[in-house]
Amino acid sequence: MEGVDVSAKTVDEAVEKALAELGLDRSQVDVEVIREGRGGILGIGGEEARVVVRPKEGASLEGEEVKCALEVLETLLSYLKIDASVRVRAPETPGDGVGLVRAVLDVSGEDLGILIGRRGDTLASLQYLVNLIVGRKLKAKTAFGIDVEGYRRRREQSLKNLAIHMAERVKSNGQTVTLEPMPPNERRIVHLALAKDAAVITESIGEGENRKVVIYPKP
Length: 219
What we know:
Structural class: alpha+beta
Radius of gyration: 20 Å
C-alpha cells in the first residue's frame, strides 16, 4: 500500500487525517514531516503543516499467531474435504481489513463457492471460527482475514462503485439515500470510499444485522 501526502493546520491533525484515509493506527505507520506549519498573523501568511504517512513495511507474516491461524484453517478445510491451498499475505485494502487484521489467509482452488456462500455469509462464518479457535488456543485476542479466490477484492470494488454511484445521485437530486443492510467490514468500505467527497456525509444507522449506511447531502 502506498503512503499519502496530507496537509492540515497542525502536524497532529495531518497525521490523523492520513490515518483515517489509510484505515491504520499510529503504530502501523511511519510519518515523515515535510513542513511543520505556522499560524501567521491575523490569519495572514500562515502555512499548513504537511506530512507523508506510509504503512510500515511488512507487518510480520511469521510468528506463532500466523502459524496457528494457518494450521487451523488448513485443518478445517481438511475436515470439510476441500482440496485447496492457503497462502499468507499482508492486508492491503479496506476490503482486506487493513489496519484491523494481522494478515490475510488467501484460499485458492477449484469449485470453492461453497466456502463463500450467499453474499459471503459462509466466508464470514469461516473467518469468525478461525479467529475464535486461534484466540482460544493462544489465549490472546487476534484477528486474521480470510479470502477465497479473490472474492473480497471483487466485493470491495463492487461496493466502491455502488457508493460512488449513490453519492452522485445524492448530489444531483439532494435526496438522502439509504443502502441495504451490510456487515461492519462492508460498511467501512463505503464510508472510506466517500470519505474525501466534500459534498456528502455518510452515517451508519440501525441495530445488529439491520445496520446500514445512509448517504446525506452535505448542508
